[in-house]
Amino acid sequence: MASKDESMAVSEIPKPNISSIRNKQLRKAAYMKLKIEKRKEKIKEKKRKKKENEALGDKAPPKQVPKTIESMRIPDETMVNAQDEEVMKDEAQDEMSSYFRRETLPKILITTSDRPSSRTNKFCKELKKSFPNSEIYYRRGLDLKKIIPQALSRDFTDIMVVNENHQQPNGLILTHLPDGPTSHFKMSNVRLAPEIKRVGEMTGHQPEIILNNFNTRLGHSVGRMFASLFPHDPEFHGRRVITFHNQRDFIFFRHHRYVFRNEKRAGLQELGPRFTLKLRSLQKGTFDSKYGEYEWIHKAVRTTIMYITVFRRRTIASKEFNIALNDNGNTNSPSQGKEDCQLFHPIMGKSPIVKAMTQLPAITLLRRYQEHLCE
Amino acid sequence: MAAPIHNVFVGSEIGLLKGVSVQKSQWENINSIETAEKENEISAICWGNDDQTEICFGLKCQKVKTYDTDTKEFSEERDFHVDEGRLRGLLRIDNNFVTATSTGVVRLWKDAEDFTEIQAGKDLYCMTNNPVTPNVLATGGKENELKIWNLEEPEKPTFLAKNVKNDWLNLRVPVWVIQTRFLPESEKLVTTTGHHQIRVYDPKAQRRPVLDFTYDEYPITALSTWGRQDNKVIVGNTQGQMALIDLRKGAMVQQYKGIAGGIRCIQCHESLPLMASCGLDRFLRIHDLETRELLHKIYLKSKLNCLLFGRKWEREEKRETRSRGKFSNVKGIENLEVKEEMDEEDENMWEQMKVVQTKTKRKGETQEENISDLKKKKTQLKPRVGKTVK
C-alpha cells in the first residue's frame, strides 16, 4: 500500500478524506459527488465485463452464484433421499398411509377456540371454501378430547382447530384421525380474501396442491399431513392450486388460480386466505397435550441454531430439478401417482414470497399438468 | 478390524435392529429392511449372556429373536404368544426367557409348554428384575401398583406397594407406574410415573414410597440408574426433557439439552460416565454424565424404542486415543480414570515422602512451617480429586 501511495503522490494529489470536511453541506455535496463517480465507475466496469464475456463467447467464465442464506445452507442430516428404502417403508406404514393408498377420502372438521371473534369466523369460512369436503362446527365450549371420538363416529379424517388471541387467529391445531399425528402451528400474517388486492372468486373445483421444501424427515411427516387434507384427484380444468411453501421453517399458505397466457407465460390470481404457519410441535397420536408423546417439539431456548431449522434445505439446482421432472414429474413427493397433484419445485431468486410466486417456475409444472390431461 | 464393532444396539418402531459403532458414527440395520413392519416393532431388548455377545429382542407381537454379535447371525425366532396384548418386558434369566405383556401376564419360559406364570394385573407397563438376585421381579402399570415377585412363588407378590395418601383435597392420587428399576446393590426400587412423579420404595421399610417427588409436568417415560451409584438416576419424559436426579435431595442436578422429541429409553455405560438415550426424534445421543456434554448424536432414520449400551466402548476408545489422540472429550474420560488410580497412589506417596528441609535463611522459620505447607497442599489436592471420582 505504502509504495502505491508514493507512486500516486508523484502523479496526482491524493483525494482528501471526506470525513475531514467539517461543514455539513460541503461534506454532503462532496459525498454525493463521490457516490455518483463510484456508480459511474461501477456501470462502466459492468459494461466492460459484459463486452469481454461476449467477445469470449463460450469461453467466458461461468456466472457466479450469489451467496444467499438459502444457497449457503448446509443440508440437514435428516434430509430424505427419495430412494431411501427405510423411510419409504416407514412412510408406507404410518398413520397417513391409508390416504396415500387411496383407501380413505379426507373429510375435515373445522372448529375454533371458544367464543371466536368475527374475524376468526370469517377466516374459518374461507378455510372451508379452500379445503374441499370440510365442515365448520361451533365449538360449544367442548374439550378437544371429547370432540375427537364424536368426529371419529362421523367419519372425519382430520380436525382443524383455529385458535385466536386478541381477536386475531394465531394458532392452528391439526389432528389426523383416527391415530394421529397431531401438529400444532403458530399462525401469523393472516390475510382474509377481501383484504387481498385483486382477489378472485373461489370456485368449488378440487384444487391441486403444491408442497415445497418439505424435505427433512420431519418435513416429510408434516407435508404428508397437509397432503392428506385434499382429495386425491384434482380437477385440472378448475385451475385452482393451493401451495404450502416452506422457507426457513415458515410455511406459507397461498391459494391461486392460474391461466396460461401463451406458451411461455402464465398468470396467477390469488383467491383465498393467505397465512403463514410455523411448526410448534408434532405429537404422536390424537390431541393429548398432557400425556401425549412428542415426536418433535419447539423449545424456546436452544443451544445452537442447528435445532431451530427444521426443514433446512439447500436449493435444488435447477438442472437437477429439470431432470427429476423429466423422469417422473415430481421429485420428492410422497408415494402419490404420476397424475397427482403434489409437486416440489425450487423457487428461484431472493424476492419476497409473493413476488416469487408470480414468477413461478411452478407454471411450467402446471403446464405439465395439462400435458397429463392431454395424455 | 474390517467390520466396525457395534457398541450400541437400538430397536426401532418398525422392527429394525440397528447396530451403531458410536465412535465412527456409523450404523447399519442388522435385520433386513424387508422385514420392517409395524407389527414387528421391537419393544424390549436385553443381553443374552454376560459376555454381551448375544442380543435378545422382543417384538410387539410377542416373538423373541436372538442375534449373535460374533457370528453375525440370527438364531431361530421363538414365539412366546400369550394373548392379544403387546410385549412390555423381556428378560433372560439362566438361559430362560421371561416375558411380560401389557395384559399383565408374566411368564418364565423353560419350554414352549412348560412355563411359570405370574398374573401381575392389567395394563402392565414395565417389568424388571434385580441384577443381584435375578429371580426377583418388579412390575407395575396403569392403575396397577408396584409389585415385587419371586419367581419361585408366583402365586403371591412378595411386596405390594400401597398408594400414597390422598392429596390435600382428599382425592385419590391416580396410579400409573411407567418405569421401574432396582437401585444398584440394594432392594430399593425407584419408579417413574405417568403423572410425573419419581418414587423410591424400600420394601423393608414400608409399603408406601419412602421418597416421592415430581419432575417437570409430563409423563416420565425413561429411567436409568447410573452405574453403581444408588443415589442418582436419569429420567426422560415425553417432551424430551432429560435430567440427572439426585435421590437424596429429591431434585434435579443436571439437565441435558438439545433433545427434540420424547425419550423412550436411557441406558448408562457399565463403568464409564456415559449415557445413551433414544426416542421419537430418531436420534441416538451419547452424553457425558459428568460434563453434561453431548458427545455423539447419530440420526437413525426410524423412531427408536429401546437400546442396549455395550461395554466395549472403553477398550476401543482407549486404543483410538492412543493411536490418534483425536477424541478430546474421551481423553477427558480417560484422564478421569487415571485420576482414580492416581488417588490411592497419591495417598501412599504423600505418606511415604520425607519432609524435605531446606536451609532457611531467615532466623524465625522452622521445620514445622514447611510441614504445614505440605499439608496444606495435600488438603487442597484431595477434595478436588474426590469430587471427580464421586
UniProtKB/TrEMBL annotation, chain A:
Region described as Disordered: 1-24, 38-72
Domain Brix, chain residue ranges per copy: 106-288
Superkingdom assignment: Eukaryota
GO CC term (a single one): preribosome, large subunit precursor
Matching InterPro entries: Brix (IPR007109), IMP4/RPF1 (IPR044281)
Name of the protein described by the UniProt record: Ribosome production factor 1
Pfam families for the chain: Brix
GO biological process, one term: maturation of 5.8S rRNA
Bias (Basic and acidic residues): 51-61
Species in which this protein is naturally found: Mizuhopecten yessoensis
SMART domains the UniProt entry points to: Brix
Residue spans crossing the bilayer: none
Molecular functions (GO terms): rRNA primary transcript binding
Automatic annotation (TrEMBL), chain B:
InterPro entries with a match to the protein in the record: WD40/YVTN_repeat-like_dom_sf, WD40_repeat_dom_sf, WD40_rpt, WDR74/Nsa1
SMART domains: WD40
CDD domains per the UniProt record, alphabetical: WDR74 (cd22857)
Domain of life of the source: Eukaryota
Organism whose genome encodes this protein: Mizuhopecten yessoensis (Japanese scallop)
Entries under Gene3D superfamilies matching the protein: YVTN repeat-like/Quinoprotein amine dehydrogenase
PANTHER family: NOP SEVEN ASSOCIATED PROTEIN 1, WD REPEAT-CONTAINING PROTEIN 74
Signal peptide (from-to): none
Cellular component annotations (GO), alphabetically ordered: nucleolus; preribosome, large subunit precursor
Region (Disordered): 357-390
Record field: compositional bias (Basic residues): 375-390
One GO process term, biological-process aspect: ribosomal large subunit biogenesis
Listed name of the protein: WD repeat-containing protein 74
